[in-house]
Design goal:
Length: about 300
């Protein structure tokens, strides 16, 4: 959407925006210009134009000029190379202009009783140019007011990474009281990784307005993980797709998962998800892990899980 440019504010000209619901087509005023003396040549007019979303003139579009005691319709019908329509302003006349056929912004306080400026702009000889654009009101921003918070046992000062299913990422820090808090989250699924020790919780789903408590489990040093799913790089779109497809599986089974070999080597069994090189498999097997893998193809992924 094009932003409004109004260089006629100092001449008292104002734009009243239409009250439009999201997704509704309307007329948006995108430019109000007071002609300079060099542009005006002593005229006293409002010059009008209307354009579509691509900037092309909309021939046949209609508007309305009002003043105290009268009004007049106009049509954008002049040839290209000049304004689409014009209307003369008379002494002491104060006009407003809006488009017809659907909702429209309105330009108010168009008048010519401004002081002399130079040859071309004198008292009662001032002109204005107005451009409106056919526009669709933007959709409202989705709610982004969810909160995920909780406790990180023995995690004072640790750095946490929040990773959303859209690939968005945010960092946070654990306080001295072992608590953390991520605010202003939009709807979606999120996992949280303690970057200091590799613990991961989630995925957790929020709706853009709720508050979810999600604690990190205590660290168990002598007991290895039974199973760990090792995903590809978090920034890889395929990884985001795999996380989304496996979110329910991970949550229902309580499986540990993550993105680094350093975490995976603590597990008895490691399942590779996504693209991993041969060196990764060798390192895991050398560490004593049993290694298997799931297919990259999303259509085969869930079917393979039922058999694993």
């Amino acid at each position: 959407m094009t932003d409004l440019i109004n260089d006629a504010v100092e001449y008292g000209v104002r734009v009243v925006e239409a009250d439009v619901d999201p997704g509704v087509e309307y007329w948006k005023v995108i430019r109000v210009h007071h002609l300079s003396p060099e542009e005006n040549y002593g005229r006293h007019h409002v010059f009008l134009d209307s354009i579509d979303e691509m900037g092309n003139r909309l021939f046949g579009s209609r508007g309305l000029i009002r003043w105290d005691g009268g009004n007049e319709n106009f049509v954008i019908d002049k040839p290209l190379g000049g304004p689409g329509a014009n209307f003369p302003l008379w002494k002491w006349q104060i006009c407003s202009i809006e488009m017809l056929d659907f909702l429209s912004d309105r330009v108010e306080n168009l008048r010519t009783d401004h002081p002399d400026e130079a040859s071309g702009n004198a008292l009662f000889h001032h002109s204005f140019s107005i451009t409106v654009q056919r526009t669709v009101a933007p959709m409202s921003d989705p709610l982004a007011d969810s909160v995920v918070s909780g406790r990180v046992f023995c995690g004072q000062g640790h750095t946490l990474r929040l990773l959303g299913d859209e690939g968005n990422e945010r960092l946070g820090e654990v306080g001295d009281d072992e608590t953390y808090r991520f605010e202003h989250l939009s709807a979606g699924r999120y996992t949280i990784e303690d970057m200091s020790d590799g613990r991961i919780v989630g995925p957790v789903e929020v709706d853009g307005s709720n508050w979810v408590e999600l604690d990190f489990p205590p660290i168990v040093t002598d007991q290895p993980l039974n199973r760990y799913l090792l995903f590809g790089l978090p920034s890889d779109p395929l990884t985001q797709l795999h996380l989304s497809l496996l979110a329910d599986y991970l949550a229902d089974g309580g499986y540990a998962f993550g993105f680094t070999v350093e975490q995976a080597v603590r597990a008895v069994r490691v399942t590779l998800v996504g693209d991993h090189d041969a060196a990764t498999r060798t390192l895991l097997e050398t560490a004593g892990c049993t290694v298997d893998e799931l297919p990259d193809d999303p259509s085969e992924l869930l079917a393979a899980l039922q058999m694993s």
